[in-house]
Amino acid sequence: MTVAVEYYVLLSAALFCIGLFGVLTRKNALMFLMSVEIMLNAANINLIAFSFYHGNLTGQVFALFTMALAAAEVAIGLGIILVLYRNFEGIDVTVPAAMRW
């Protein structure tokens, strides 16, 4: 007995909406990165669900590439957060945006 693909799509849509809400409303850079990770995981759920539904491994391979992209994004993002904290004594993303020249 397998779970229908519609349930995976609904789960993925819910996770993507939660991540999108977090990206649009949070000012904390760590919460911003976590929201982007939730959105990438929603995309991975879609890729793997449709890969299983169609019976090929293409979606699973793309999900692995997406996980590698997410790992690189976290490494770069944490570096940016450290520079943000060092230069502005906080990780509020609205402060550097207001100090443009």
TrEMBL record:
UniProt KW keywords: Membrane, Oxidoreductase, Transmembrane, Transmembrane helix, Transport
Pfam family, one: Oxidored_q2
Compartmental location: Membrane
Gene3D superfamilies assigned: 1.10.287.3510
Principal subcellular localisation of the protein: membrane
Protein's membrane topology: Multi-pass membrane protein
Superkingdom, natural source: Archaea
EC annotation from Swiss-Prot or TrEMBL: 1.6.5.9
Molecular function in Gene Ontology: NADH dehydrogenase (quinone) (non-electrogenic) activity
Transmembrane segments: 6-24, 31-55, 61-85
GO cellular component terms listed in the entry, alphabetical order: membrane
Annotated PANTHER family: NADH-UBIQUINONE OXIDOREDUCTASE CHAIN 4L (PTHR11434:SF16), NADH-UBIQUINONE OXIDOREDUCTASE SUBUNIT ND4L (PTHR11434)
NCBIfam families documented for this protein: PRK05715.1-2, PRK05715.1-5
Family designation: Belongs to the complex I subunit 4L family.
Name of the protein in question: NADH-quinone oxidoreductase subunit NuoK
Species name: Saliphagus infecundisoli
Gene this protein is translated from: nuoK
